[in-house]
TrEMBL record:
Domain of life where this protein originates: Eukaryota
InterPro entries linked: NAD(P)-bd_dom_sf (IPR036291), SDR_fam (IPR002347)
Keyword Phosphoprotein set for record: no
Keywords per UniProt: Oxidoreductase
Name of this chain's protein: Uncharacterized protein
Pfam families, per database record: adh_short, adh_short_C2
Claim: Cell membrane is one of the keywords in the record: no
Record-stated family: Belongs to the short-chain dehydrogenases/reductases (SDR) family.
SUPFAM superfamilies cross-referenced by the UniProt entry: NAD(P)-binding Rossmann-fold domains
MF terms in GO: oxidoreductase activity
Listed transmembrane segments: none
Length: 304
C-alpha cells in the first residue's frame, strides 16, 4: 500500500500544545510518517512534555522540539526559523495550524478582538509563507534543490456565514486567499501551498480560545477526558455528534484532519497546489439538511 511519508524531513506545526487537538495530532502523524524533526509550537506549553512522551512511546525516532511561540509575532517567527536552520540546516514542511474561535455577535465584537483574530490567523499564516518559504529554499548536500510544503488549517466557516462569528470567518477567508496567492508566488521555488478546511472537530479549542486570544503564555490543566466531554456537550447542542442519523452531522476526530494534512504535505499530493480541501463530513453541501429533501432513508440493500 502506498503511504504518505515525510521521511527525513524537518518541519513546524503550530497550535500543537493542546491536550487534544489537530496540531498535536499532526505532530503524532508526522512522526509516524518518518519526520526527522518536528517543531511543536504553541502559546501554551501545558502539554508539551506529554506530547514528547507520547511520540517516544510510539517507538518513532522523531525529535520533537517544543517552543512557546506567538505566531502573530514576526520577531518570534524569525527566531524560530533561525533556530531550525542553525540546528538542522533545512525546513521541509510548515503546518500553519494555530488559531482560536470565540463566537460573538457583531454588537459584542470589539475592534481589538477582531484585530487579534486577524493577527493570529491571517498575519500568522502570512509569516509562515514569507519566512517558512525562505527557509525551504535553503539547500545543502542533503537537500540539493529548494522544496517544501506549507499546509494551512482553514475552516468550513469560509463557505458560510453561519458557522462562526465575523472575526473567525473573515480571518479564515483571508487564509484561503493567502493559500491561493502563496501557491502562485512560490511556484518557481518548488514549494506547494494548500489548506485543509475542517468542519466540526472534537478538540480542546473550546477550552483554550479565550486564553489564546489574550496573546500571552498560559497554563491549562484539564484532562483529555474533560476536554472531550465539554466539546461533545457543545456540539450536541448543535445536533452534531457521534450517534447521528446522517453522516454529515458527525463530529470528526482531530486525527482525521491530521491525516488529510499529512497527505497534503507528502509527495502523494504532488499534483495539488493552491487548493482548499474541505474535510467536514459533507456538512456544508448538506447545509439545509432536511428542509428541502425531507428525511433521507438508508439505501436499500442489493438483493441477489
Amino acid at each position: 500500500m502506498v503511504e504518505a511519508t515525510l521521511k527525513g524531513q524537518v518541519g513546524v506545526v503550530t497550535g500543537a500544545g493542546s491536550a487534544y487537538g489537530i496540531g498535536r495530532s499532526i505532530v503524532l502523524a508526522a512522526a509516524k510518517s518518518g519526520a526527522k524533526v518536528v517543531y511543536a509550537c504553541d502559546i501554551s506549553s501545558s502539554y508539551f512534555a506529554d506530547l514528547q512522551e507520547t511520540v517516544k512511546a510510539t517507538g518513532c525516532d522523531t525529535i520533537v522540539e517544543c517552543h512557546v511561540f506567538d505566531i502573530s509575532s514576526e520577531e518570534q517567527t524569525l527566531i524560530l526559523i533561525q533556530h531550525i536552520l542553525k540546528n538542522y540546516g533545512r525546513l521541509d514542511f510548515y503546518f500553519a495550524n494555530a488559531g482560536f474561535v470565540i463566537y460573538r455577535g457583531l454588537n459584542d465584537l470589539s475592534v481589538s478582538q477582531f484585530e487579534r483574530a486577524m493577527a493570529v490567523m491571517q498575519t500568522g499564516t502570512f509569516l509562515a509563507l514569507k519566512y517558512g518559504s525562505q527557509a525551504m529554499s535553503v539547500t545543502s548536500s542533503d537537500k540539493p534543490v529548494p522544496k517544501g510544503n506549507i499546509v494551512v488549517t482553514s475552516s468550513c466557516a469560509t463557505l458560510s456565514g453561519a458557522f462562526a462569528d465575523m472575526a473567525y470567518t473573515t480571518a479564515k477567508n483571508g487564509c484561503n486567499g493567502l493559500v491561493r496567492s502563496g501557491s502562485v508566488q512560490l511556484s518557481s521555488s518548488n514549494i506547494r501551498v494548500n489548506a485543509v478546511a475542517p468542519g466540526p472537530v472534537a478538540t480542546s479549542l473550546m477550552s483554550t480560545s479565550r486564553l489564546a486570544e489574550e496573546g500571552v503564555e498560559y497554563k491549562l490543566e484539564k484532562t483529555v477526558e474533560e476536554i472531550q466531554k465539554r466539546s461533545a456537550r457543545i456540539f450536541e447542542g448543535f445536533g452534531i455528534g457521534e450517534e447521528q442519523e446522517y453522516y454529515y452531522n458527525r463530529c470528526s476526530a482531530p486525527e482525521e484532519i491530521a491525516n488529510v494534512a499529512i497527505f497534503l504535505a507528502s509527495d502523494l499530493a504532488s499534483a495539488m497546489n493552491g487548493q482548499i480541501v474541505v474535510a467536514d463530513n459533507g456538512k456544508t453541501v448538506a447545509a439545509t439538511g432536511e428542509a428541502f429533501t425531507g428525511p433521507v432513508p438508508p439505501i436499500n440493500q442489493f438483493k441477489l
